[in-house]
Amino acid sequence: MTTDDLLTVSQFSVSYDVTPPVEAVRDVSLTVRRGEILGLAGESGCGKTTLAYGIQRLLKPPAVITSGSAVFHDESGEDFDINTMDETQMRAFRWEKASMVFQGAMNALNPIITIGAQLQDVFSTHRPAMSRTERRAEAGRLLDIVGVGSGRLRSYPHELSGGMRQRVMIAMALALKPQLMIMDEPTTALDVLVQREIIEQISDLRREFGFSVIFITHDLPLLLEISDRIAVMREGRIVEIDTARNLYQNPTHDYTRRLLASFPSLTGERGGFVRRPGEPALAVEAGSI
Amino acid sequence: MTTLEFTNVSKKYRVRGSGELLALDKVNFTLTSGQTIALVGQSGSGKSTIAKILTQLERVSSGQVLLDGTPIPTWGRPLRRYRQTVRMVFQDPFASLNPAHTIRHHIERPLRLDKVVPADQVEEEVFRLLTRVRLSPEQTIDRRPHELSGGQRQRVAIARALASRPKLLIADEPVSMLDVSIRLEVLNLLAELQREANLGVLYITHDLATARHFSDEIMVLHHGTVVEHGKADDVILHPQHAYTLALRNASPDPEKHFAAPTTPGATS
């Protein structure tokens, strides 16, 4: 195993143990390299969130990891196998080594506690030796890093805009300088200008701190711009994984092509899009819905 | 031919503590049958205020909204008749249909309330509308919304909007909650229905790419002011206003990003 790899997922499968069982993730193998942004693209129900939760062992019954492994290669050279750690080790591992920006992060903050206190919680749990003053200083510093500003420590979530709340969530995920950040649709609810700012911030922070990112979204054009490599998921499987450029210019799988064609080009030709009076309607073949 | 005209429309909201918020500032535009105007802008730019005024959920503070030269009614029977003419398709197909009622009920209601067809032809008309939005009437009519996919639900919402045979349709982010691979299909369906019925469509979105391809004109709204309004291609390819340019540059554009001479696969 080269030291360039941060996370190796092999033959990972997750089922929801209902009747009939749903195989949400099927035999997924992938590696996340140190410092790279790996995009995970797919539509709702394709298993991308289940996979992300699975590699953090955050799944709750009826979801079961039925096979496979996820091994995290720490900077120190130590390997952590996510399947064999006990609860205490897992608690220490999460956030310290790999943190997560959850889907709908804008609503993930506790509405009745100030954002300062919520940020300091991370330190009280993972850095019990820190004094209150240190915790507060560190929380302020994090807010400065993400551009919210330490002046907002005493603000409640409702006093911040959606974009700012999203940044607070990113600050929280950064708190312990993890080596991996999993971001599940972090900008989906935001408008394009705010989205662009946050994306640029994530890129800058990655350059500064060198962490890897698994970026989950259905927004393929966005992924193409920010990712080093992209994995396309469908029905629990990875159908194609390649560099962003290759995936865009030479997609090999039909589904990737279809997904790419679902996004009309902003400045280019019309693609599968119809409009203009008089033109015949050209239904885009999108399978059965 | 139906014409809807916004003349110097302003809307103020009273905000507790800080006085007034000018949500729309002297907005002017004209929407006619058969035409599609996309309304783009950030959250808070006033897009939804325009939709609310058009559906008379809000009144204008100053200025005039004219439908074929007459001010739009504000109450009673005339308002109901107006609302038959201007219909809305909402963003969230999971929230805009009543989970307790069948699809039949959803589409029958406007038909019966607006007496679009005689009572004995209602069933037939429901079938016709479902077929028009390419749903199988036999398979959908007695189902409830939770039994349908997001795309199917949005088709039901479109069928419901078309039931009263409106002249104008306001589509507020009609595909943003749908899975990406069916978004184009639903937009293409809307475009086709529009041509069939010669509808005027106001397409509210923040997706510049679909705005460009779906609409004849684009109107860019920023803090309640129309900063740019022109032919769709002109606005996107040659933006005149700094804000339009900022919006365009913030939108993902892989084609430009990879700046390759040819982009095989992008359009298959």
Automatic annotation (TrEMBL), chain A:
<dbReference type="GO" id="GO:0015833">
    <property type="term" value="P:peptide transport"/>
</dbReference>
<dbReference type="InterPro" id="IPR017871">
    <property type="entry name" value="ABC_transporter-like_CS"/>
</dbReference>
<dbReference type="InterPro" id="IPR013563">
    <property type="entry name" value="Oligopep_ABC_C"/>
</dbReference>
<keyword id="KW-0813">Transport</keyword>
<keyword id="KW-0067">ATP-binding</keyword>
<dbReference type="GO" id="GO:0016887">
    <property type="term" value="F:ATP hydrolysis activity"/>
</dbReference>
<keyword id="KW-0472">Membrane</keyword>
<keyword id="KW-0997">Cell inner membrane</keyword>
<keyword id="KW-1278">Translocase</keyword>
<dbReference type="InterPro" id="IPR003593">
    <property type="entry name" value="AAA+_ATPase"/>
</dbReference>
<keyword id="KW-1003">Cell membrane</keyword>
<protein>
    <submittedName>
        <fullName>ABC transporter ATP-binding protein</fullName>
    </submittedName>
</protein>
<dbReference type="InterPro" id="IPR050388">
    <property type="entry name" value="ABC_Ni/Peptide_Import"/>
</dbReference>
<dbReference type="InterPro" id="IPR003439">
    <property type="entry name" value="ABC_transporter-like_ATP-bd"/>
</dbReference>
<dbReference type="Pfam" id="PF00005">
    <property type="entry name" value="ABC_tran"/>
</dbReference>
<dbReference type="GO" id="GO:0005524">
    <property type="term" value="F:ATP binding"/>
</dbReference>
<keyword id="KW-0547">Nucleotide-binding</keyword>
<dbReference type="GO" id="GO:0005886">
    <property type="term" value="C:plasma membrane"/>
</dbReference>
<dbReference type="Pfam" id="PF08352">
    <property type="entry name" value="oligo_HPY"/>
</dbReference>
<dbReference type="InterPro" id="IPR027417">
    <property type="entry name" value="P-loop_NTPase"/>
</dbReference>
<feature type="domain" description="ABC transporter">
    <location>
        <begin position="1"/>
        <end position="260"/>
    </location>
</feature>
<comment type="similarity">
    <text>Belongs to the ABC transporter superfamily.</text>
</comment>
From TrEMBL, chain B:
<feature type="domain" description="ABC transporter">
    <location>
        <begin position="4"/>
        <end position="248"/>
    </location>
</feature>
<keyword id="KW-0813">Transport</keyword>
<dbReference type="InterPro" id="IPR050319">
    <property type="entry name" value="ABC_transp_ATP-bind"/>
</dbReference>
<dbReference type="InterPro" id="IPR003593">
    <property type="entry name" value="AAA+_ATPase"/>
</dbReference>
<keyword id="KW-0547">Nucleotide-binding</keyword>
<keyword id="KW-0067">ATP-binding</keyword>
<protein>
    <submittedName>
        <fullName>ABC transporter ATP-binding protein</fullName>
    </submittedName>
</protein>
<dbReference type="InterPro" id="IPR027417">
    <property type="entry name" value="P-loop_NTPase"/>
</dbReference>
<dbReference type="GO" id="GO:0005524">
    <property type="term" value="F:ATP binding"/>
</dbReference>
<dbReference type="Pfam" id="PF00005">
    <property type="entry name" value="ABC_tran"/>
</dbReference>
<dbReference type="GO" id="GO:0016887">
    <property type="term" value="F:ATP hydrolysis activity"/>
</dbReference>
<dbReference type="InterPro" id="IPR017871">
    <property type="entry name" value="ABC_transporter-like_CS"/>
</dbReference>
<dbReference type="GO" id="GO:0055085">
    <property type="term" value="P:transmembrane transport"/>
</dbReference>
<dbReference type="InterPro" id="IPR003439">
    <property type="entry name" value="ABC_transporter-like_ATP-bd"/>
</dbReference>
